[in-house]
Design a protein that fits this description.
Elements: H1 5-20, E1 27-29, H2 30-41, H3 49-68, E2 77-79, H4 80-91, H5 94-99, H6 101-112, E3 119-121, H7 122-131, H8 136-146, E4 153-155, H9 156-168
Helix pairs in contact: 1-4, 2-3, 3-6, 6-9, 7-8
GO molecular function, one term: calcium ion binding
Pfam family, one: EF-hand_8
Organism: Saccharothrix syringae
Length: 187
């Protein structure tokens, strides 16, 4: 079955919306972004103030961008359609993408790479995503796709490439599309 890139992008951003919607009420609020920041910062060591602070700052800036581009309604919440459109038109703008999304990714990788190898093993990757609320079967399948050279680990560059594919990519078969689940599945 052929998939239109707009449809795949909507599915990816809808999966992201569901991941962020901690209250399962079909709205995102500043509190949801604060909770995501808490989830991400919890995977870093408690004394890693630099990376924990960078992740928290990027999540709060992400909320600010949503507000600044008009996606936030009068009740201080963002619906699914508005989130998807804001992701497409504002958050993925190069200046915002680098500061917000890649800011989180870079701080996360630095926090997890405690041995300075620049890589995550399959087990480390699955544990990281499990701590972030993604089931192991999803992250294991994603890891196999993201380990492009079959080395048994994902480098910082491979992870960044996957994130760029997820948020910016137009190739429906790109490995990064599977970071949070299969965007080609129905529903």
């Amino acid at each position: 079955m052929a998939h239109d890139i707009t449809e795949i992008t909507e599915r990816k951003f809808s999966i992201l919306f569901d991941w962020f919607d901690h209250t399962d009420d079909d709205w995102l609020t500043r509190a949801d972004f604060e909770q995501m920041a808490d989830v991400f910062t919890a995977v870093a060591r408690p004394d890693d103030h630099e990376n924990r602070g960078a992740m928290r700052e990027a999540f709060m800036a992400w909320w600010d961008v949503l507000r600044d581009i008009g996606a936030v309604d009068a009740q201080e919440r963002v619906g699914r359609r508005e989130f998807i459109e804001a992701m497409r038109t504002g958050v993925t703008e190069p200046k915002n993408f680098e500061r917000l999304i890649l800011g989180i990714v870079d701080a996360l990788m630095r926090a997890l790479d405690t041995d300075g190898s620049g890589e995550l093993s399959g087990d480390e990757y699955v544990r990281m995503y499990q701590a972030l609320g993604i089931p192991p079967e999803t992250s294991s399948a994603a890891f196999r796709r993201l380990d492009r050279n079959g080395s048994g680990s994902i480098s910082h560059d491979e992870f960044r490439t996957a994130i760029e594919e997820f948020y910016l990519g137009t190739d429906p078969e790109a490995p990064g599309n599977w970071l949070l689940g299969n965007p080609l599945s129905e529903g």
